[in-house]
Amino acid sequence: MSQLNLRTQEHRLREEMCRVGASLFARGYVHATAGNISVRLPEGFLITPTDACLGFLDPAQLAHVDAEGHQLSGERASKTLVLHRKIYAAACALEAQTACVIHTHSTHCVALSLRAPSHTGPLGPELLPPLTPYFVMKVGHVPCIDYHRPGSPQAAEQVARAIMQYGAQACPIRAVMLARLGPNVWHNNPAQAMATLEELEETARLWLLSPVAPLDEPQIEDLRQNFGARW
User: Fold this and answer.
1) Can you say whether residue 129 is alpha, beta or left, with left for phi > 0 and alpha for psi between -120 and 50 degrees?
2) Residues facing residue 63 across a β-bridge
3) Per-residue pLDDT at 111
4) Which of 178, 57, 60, 45 has the alpha carbon at shortest distance from 109?
5) Which of 79, 100, 151, 195 is most buried, judging by how many CB atoms fall within 10 Å of its CB?
6) pLDDT recorded at residue 2
7) Residues in the chain with pLDDT values less than 50
8) pTM for the whole thing?
9) Which pLDDT score is estimated for 7?
10) For 191-206, what is each residue's pLDDT tens digit?
11) Which is nearest to 143 in space by CA: 171, 123, 116?
12) Are 185 and 174 within 8 A, CB to CB?
């Protein structure tokens, strides 16, 4: 890809990150300076600055870091950069097109994480059971990650390990839940990552409002056969 095309692509991604941030902020998925967004570039990453409000991002001030995480330009990168880089490394090994990570402190997801886990998946505690078909198809398993302080390298290692373990079970994931902090979701671009986050938070809200029986195995198998659900 030519340098001109690379610059054009980066400009569009900067604009898209700001659009997604503003949309999440306007609808209450993030508040104050909570949350962060990153995208993967051919060489390095763009990530929102530390303590930035996602509702008022400036494309020119987004942090640009190289593949090793060294700052190249923009304001100081979010303290969650280590976590984002670990997610990309693990997720891209399973799905090479992974190119965006979003972290929020979404109210209903965090509220669920303050309770004892209500669902146990194939590898341990998960945030939610298979409650709705779109949660199964669009989000999938969401393993719960033990509490660590924001930016903790231990949390990053635990998240990467969960991604690899679920992948080894032929059940790749698109989200994890950091206890007391919020979800991290990832997908091929910012719009798809935002849609995954929206489905996850709305399912958490439904579960808090009406903790009904989850879908059973025949119903889930039907979703696998007809829609390729990865549950």
Assistant:
1) beta
2) 47
3) 97
4) 178
5) 100
6) 66
7) none
8) 0.95
9) 82
10) 999 999 999 999 999 9
11) 123
12) yes
What pLDDT sits at residue 1? Answer: 61
Catalytic residue numbers? 134
Report residue 110: phi and psi, to 5°. Answer: -65, -40
Paired with 47 in beta bridges are 38, 63
Residues in the chain: 231
Query: How far does Cα 40 stand from its chain's mean position?
Result: 13
Question: Are 24 and 35 in contact, with CB atoms under 8 Å apart?
Answer: yes
The per-residue pLDDT for 78 is: 94
Three-state SS for the chain is CCHHHHHHHHHHHHHHHHHHHHHHHHCCCCCCCCCEEEEEECCEEEECECCCCHHHCCHHHCEEECCCCCEEECCCECCCHHHHHHHHHHHHHHCCCCCEEEECCCHHHHHHHCCCCCEEECCEEECCCCCCHHHHHHCCCCEEECCCCCCCHHHHHHHHHHHHHHHHCCCCCCEEEECCCEEEEEECCHHHHHHHHHHHHHHHHHHHHCCCCCCCHHHHHHHHHHHCCCC
